[in-house]
Write a structure and sequence with these properties.
The chain is mostly helical. About 90% of the residues lie in helices and about 0% in strands. The termini are far apart.
Length: about 70
C-alpha cells in the first residue's frame, strides 16, 4: 500500500507540473482501479465514482492541450 501511495503522490505531482501528460497517467491509473473493482462484486459504486474521476482527468488533459496550443500561437 505504501508503494501505491507513493505512485499516487508522484502522479499528483506530475499533474501539477505537467498536466498534459499527468492527466493521462492519472486517467490510466483510474482505469486500472476500475477494472480491478469490477472484478469483485459489490464495489460498483466505487467503480462508478472512479469512472467520474477518470472522465475529469481526461477533461483536464484536453483542457491542458488546448491551453498549450493557444499559448503557442
Amino acid at each position: 500500500m505504501r508503494i501505491v501511495g507513493v505512485i499516487e503522490i508522484l502522479a499528483g505531482m506530475l499533474v501539477g507540473f505537467a498536466p498534459r501528460i499527468g492527466a493521462y497517467v492519472v486517467a490510466l491509473w483510474l482505469a486500472g482501479i476500475i477494472v480491478n473493482l469490477l472484478t469483485f462484486s459489490g464495489f460498483y459504486d466505487i467503480a462508478l465514482r472512479d469512472f467520474g474521476l477518470m472522465i475529469g482527468a481526461l477533461a483536464l488533459a484536453r483542457l491542458a492541450q488546448a491551453h498549450a496550443r493557444d499559448a503557442g500561437s
